[in-house]
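Milestone M4 deliverable, item 7.
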Amino acid sequence: FVFDTSVNMAGAGQPFYMPLTWPVGHLASAILKPQEEKVAAPQATSDLDLIGHMTSCFAATRSFIMALMCIYILFDEDTYPAFGPGKEFQIDWMLKIFLRNALGAILICGSWDYFLYFSPISKKLHKYKLNPDYPSNAQFKHDSFYTMTAMVTGSILEITMCHLWANGTIPYQKSMMETPIQNLLWAITITHWRIPHFWAIHRGMHPWFKRNEKHLIPDIGRFLYKKVHALHHKSYNPTSFSGTNMHPVESFMYFSAALICVPFGCHPAIFLGCVIDCAVGAWLGHDGFQWPGSGDYFHQLHHQYFECNYGAMHVPIDQWLGTFSAGKGDKRADDIAAMQEKHEVHKKRE
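Output delivered:
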């Protein structure tokens, strides 16, 4: 089948409903796309238009559906740990969560990286790569290892919540139908309500002050960058595995966005849907290609210039606070490049 690309487009020239078709729709369109098609220059915008927001809602819906499958298909009815079995920490249900997350990461990241970088169609797709160079095998190994550690931190967060829910420590809805409209709104806006959290923790792990600038408080951001976040920036030429290539401290902070919905007594699927959205969104957003991936040039520029584009376009905090950059030729990007050259910032990529 061929997707009609004459409809309203989102992201890197894809229909707004495309996230729900991943990976089948992306594979099919990549195989059937004409070899001679010209590649448009990638663009980064500070915010999303209506179609972009619709695309985000479809992506969030995909994450929510995956969460429902994890709860009601991978576990038998009413045996998901939050519904009772999680009252005691037992190896059987905890191990199932660890294995599910590890295998999910390997399947999604591994298969997508194989398709983009190693499959028979990879040469056809090379012209869509944002950085024309391919990452080294050493980077693939490094990023996949730390993505596995991120799956451990994500699993610990879920296991802890299941235990608290099962013991009645924290209230929750066992049935989605208790407040169906509320749950629907939570589900389709997952990406939107987690992005401010992402911006805050991400900006907090970059230097708060310029070098040699006087300040009254310690530059905690510079410390966190050196000790924690620099690990993620080793993926200067990112792939899917780079998305959650994080120090355990950072991956725990990243997945903690799922806690936003907990005080509202939401169904566990909202919480788990956010964890999945954090993971899958990072994996597909870091794949390094303008197409057939998510085409996240906005975040690609962050990996290139470091001190810009800390969040995402869904909630344009970077635009509001003056930290957005559209890339080369943009004043902020040029200023950052000059600063990096002058001080040799990140040259050693600690």
